[in-house]
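Holo prediction. Input below; ligand is LARABZUK.
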Amino acid sequence: MPATGSVLDDIVAGARDDLARREAALPLGELRAHLADAPPARDPMPHFRAPGSSVIAEVKRRSPSKGALAEIPDPASLARAYARGGAAAISVLTEERRFGGRLDDLRAVRAAVETPILRKDFIVESYQLVEARAAGADLALLIVAALDDDTLRRLHDEATGLGLTVLVEVHDEAEAERALALEAELIGVNSRNLKTLEVDPDVFGRLAPQIQGDAVLVAESGITGVADVGRFVSEGAGVVLVGEALVKDGDPEAAVRAMTGVTAP
Ligand SMILES: O=C(O)c1ccccc1NCC(=O)[C@H](O)[C@H](O)COP(=O)(O)O
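Structure of the complex:
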């Protein structure tokens, strides 16, 4: 069952309100017509499965845990730097209220780089998946804690049907079981506790043995540099998802390059 009493509940409630407004302005049927104009989805999995760490570099202006992080007036320019550094994918936070993102950021990034793009948002309805694909996204995030089992499976299947690669995000053992039941090919372990917002770097190492199999594992949150990447790779991560450390770095291209291709010591 979805987690209750967490910051996630508030974020999802806001995301639903915003979604209702967008859907009133552009109904799902009309939105679907825009899919024909979207470029074909890019498959990030070959890069993610290659030896050494892959980096999903995030465009993130602010967050509930840290407040303002970076202004990012030109997300396309940041994305180009990430791409030059060798990012395997670029995550664009499109949630507006708490993260200061927007779907137009994703469109701008899509126009600027060939790198696969993840729509990082609080996705609870099909509409958001269609929006993501129509805007040019190649991946979408599904947060297990935000969805009941039926909705999780339905959205997972719909996303895959749209050509999107799904990053299924978990925080604990019970959620990991639910991701495994989906036979998800890409599972993210988010080290950020959604009640306290604190990051516990031990969570990944605790869950990885339970999840490991065919899925590629993504270590998410609190990654500050190459040493962290090495730790998570040695614990089974193929991919790291990094936001704050990259948007605050004066040289995001070099920062991504340093985190890319890291192998277990
Ligand atoms: O970042 C937050 O404060 C946050 C709070 C509640 C739900 C989600 C949140 N973040 C989304 C993410 O998953 C991170 O942006 C992502 O893992 C990157 O984390 P970081 O490198 O620590 O910025």
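The longest helix spans residues 7-25. That is the main takeaway for now.
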